[in-house]
Amino acid sequence: MFGTLKKNFSRFVSRLILSGLFLFALFLLFTGAITASTTNGTIDSTSKYAWSNNAGWINFGAANGNINITDSGLTGYAWNEIYGWINMAPSNSGVTINASGALSGSAFGENAGWINFSGVSISCSGYFTGNATGDTVGTITFTCTNCSVGTDYKPQNCRGGGSSSGGSSSGGGEIFCGDSSCNGTETCGSCSADCGACPAFCGDSSCNGNETCGSCETDCGACPVIPPAPSCGNGICDEGEACDTCSVDCGICPGGSAPPSCGNETCDSNEKCDTCPTDCGACPLPFFTLKCGDEICSATETCYTCSADCGQCQLIPTPIPGVAIPPIIPPAIREVIKSPIGSATTKAITTTGIITTVAVTAFSFPFSLLELFSLPLRLIGILLTAFGLKKRYPPWGVAYDSATKQPLDPAYITLMDSSGKEISSAITDLDGRYGFLAEPGFYGISANKTNYIFPSQKLADKKNDEVYDNLYFGEPIEVKKGQAIIKNIPLDPIAFDWNEFAKKDKQLTKFYSQWDAIFRKISNFIYYAGFIAAVIAFFAAPYPYNLIIIGLYVFLLVLRILGVKPRPFGSVSRAEDSMPMQFAIIRIISQDSSKEISHRITDKYGRYFCLVPKGRYYVKIEKKNNDGSYSLVYMSEAINASKNGIIKKRFRVNF
């Protein structure tokens, strides 16, 4: 019996030891899982959004982003709809974390630039708090009303019995949803009472916030189709229409002919442009008042009533029988001009305006021996510059002070259609420059600047002043296909402006000089003096030389009237078929800083208008895909804009 008891006791001890070892193994497995979770954390699947005041929502738990948090720092990528992927561990930097959970270092995105995380921490409850900052994205906040980025990682100082992790708080109390503290595994999805509501986004099956059927059809459903309002001429005999009021829709009344009705392609006596534009044509634009001086020769204007719009009438003298027309040049003056001394004098005067200005300008544009091959084209450019033609018509518009002629910045320029609806807007740069591309039609411009008023009364009804041509005062602008809107806009000062005073004092402008007005006056004086002398010499002595000189002056006069207007925009097209790339993104990257300084969107013709500071730039082109995303398809060589300050290259892209 004693032997049996001894044997049973041995079995009991063996089983007790095996049970203890099994429980110890389970303990190690459980604690190991917790340690792995708290030391190598991931982003919560629901609490994953932070907010940027410049870029909107940033997703730290995006698919394929794979953000991991360890004691060494953060790895992986966050996603933003505007600026794309943001790398948490870029070369030469990266986001690190200390024992208390405070982050430091910087993340980097190709389009978002550098983002400093030194103002962000991870709490013991596993939530990001504070703000990160960047030049492009602005301030990224993790603690706004709907912001929440959570992780199962715990900082080193939060692990152990002293911190609120696991199933109890530091005071020993029980953690539960509704205890007014977002702790443990609670998230905005599992416990909105403690952690707040999750941020709304398109695709969350709830039409909330600022979502509409137009911005998020997935959540809010398709927008209702609004049928067109009933109208005579729409091909449907609507309620209220009959054969006697709208025969074009309802047919001709029995036994009668078609009565006058809107839509019969005849402007009848009882129809007008405002009651039936289909037959009578559109009325004059309601936003504008057509008048003499608006650069539009209307049906009621002629060269006699408004030469400013319709041009000068051609005067054809009619000879009178029996009446002798006296010579234009008196015989005495004619003989003086024909003499050797007089001929030499007139030739000197007539050519001074050309030779002097060409020579002076040539010295201001030195060239090397390698450029001699392009000398003919260079001389043409110098000749045009000498008479102020190229400087008169730069490929942009300028908002400027009507008194000092100094460019204004920042001035807010608004483009409106004929009904007064805003189409586009621009803020002038340091040199007051702006420009618009628009569909063919009629448009208007408004200009606003502190301490200034538009339109100018000081220069009212003038087409040019000492420096600028093509002036604008609020009249309608007709845009034809292939044209840009680059009017020069004078504004009258109504109070002292310290900003413009400081800019003038420090000479900050790059495309405007105080000498422009003086150069214009000297150029005009030399030109007209030589022109008058050439006319006199030609009528006094119509030799071939004088004929050539006066022909040259007439050619230059035509150029001064019509203007030498360069192409102000660039374009993007496909190389294989020359089709325009519609709505592509043009990104301008500085060669010096490798940062994006501007971007433009091409219109439906593939055109873009891009003013830049003087410098050298790379151009990235991203095409729009069928799903609405964009793909990089082209990267240019460095483009030199140091002289003109505009990029207007025609790109032909293979993809």
Structural class given helices, strands, pairing?
Answer: alpha+beta
The biggest sheet, with number of strands, parallel, antiparallel or mixed sense and barrel status, is: 13 strands, antiparallel
Shape: extended
Strand content: 15-25%
The total of helices stands at 13
Number of domains: 5
Multimer state? single chain
Give the helix level as a range of percent.
10-25%
**Overall pLDDT:** 75
Low-confidence stretches: 27-36, 161-173, 315-326, 356-382, 384-390
Can you walk through the features of this model?
The chain folds into five domains: 1-36; 40-195, no CATH class; 331-387 and 519-562, no CATH class; 395-510, Immunoglobulins (Immunoglobulin-like, Sandwich); 570-653, Immunoglobulin-like, CATH 2.60.40.10. The protein is built from 13 helices and 33 strands. Strands 1, 2, 3, 4, 5, 6, 7, 8, 9, 10, 11, 12 and 13 form a 13-stranded antiparallel β-sheet that branches. Strands 25, 26, 29, 30 and 31 form a five-stranded antiparallel β-sheet that branches. A four-stranded mixed β-sheet has the order 17-14-23-20, with no helix packed on it. Helix 8 crosses helix 9. The longest helix is centred in the first third of the chain and has 38 residues, at 2-39. The chain is extended. The relative contact order is 0.06.
